[in-house]
C-alpha cells in the first residue's frame, strides 16, 4: 500500500494533506524519515510514525446499529443525545453514519469508514430498497395503496415519488388494537380517543427524501405515530440487538445489502 494512502485511511488527514505532511518530514517508516508519498509499505509489518506517534491502520469497519427513538443522527449535539453516544467504547474516528433516521424513528442504521460503500448504498440510481414498519392514524384502502405503489406527490414542487411497495398488516379502531401498540413510543396519539382508526404495515421505498415515509403516508391521509426501519437491500435488522446496541456486519450481510 502507498504510504499516503495508508495515512489517509488511518485518518491522519485527507490524501492531499498527508502528502504534504510526508514532504515536510513529519513521517517515519521503521524509524527512517520518509519524504516520498508514493513509497510502498507493508501495512501489516512496517511501523509508521506521524510526528512521533505510531499510526494504527484499523482497516474498513461496518456496523449494524439498532437505533432507539429519541436520539438524533449526528456526531455531536449540544442538547440531544446522538447515535454516536452509544459507541463510547470503540474508536469512531473517521466512522460516519450511512444515511440517517429521524429522531423519533427506530431501527436499522449503518456506520462505516468506507466512502465507496456509502456511495454504493446512497447513490440514487442504485435503487437500494429500504423497508419500514409503521403504525399510523387513519386508514388505507385499495386506492391509497395504488397511489403509493405508483408514485405520489408529497410536496408542492417535487416530482412523483418512485414506485413503492405497501403491505397493510392491521387496520381497525384504536380500542381494538391498542394492546398491540406500545403506547410509550407512539407520537401524537390521543390514547383517550378509542374510536380513532389506526393502521399498521410495511412500506418499502428506494429513495431517501427527507421524512419521505411520513410524507407519503400523510399524502394518503395517514399520520405516522411509530416508525422503524427493518431492512436495507437484502439486509434485515438483527432483532437480537437491543435498542442502542450494535455489532459488526458479516461479509455475507454486506453482500446482502446490494441484493435486489
Automatic annotation (TrEMBL):
It is an enzyme of class 5 (isomerase). The gene is rsuA. NCBIfam families: pseudouridine synthase (TIGR00093). Residues 1-64 form the RNA-binding S4 domain. This is Pseudouridine synthase. GO terms for molecular function: RNA binding; rRNA pseudouridine synthase activity. SMART domains: S4. It comes from Clostridium puniceum. The keyword Chaperone does not apply.
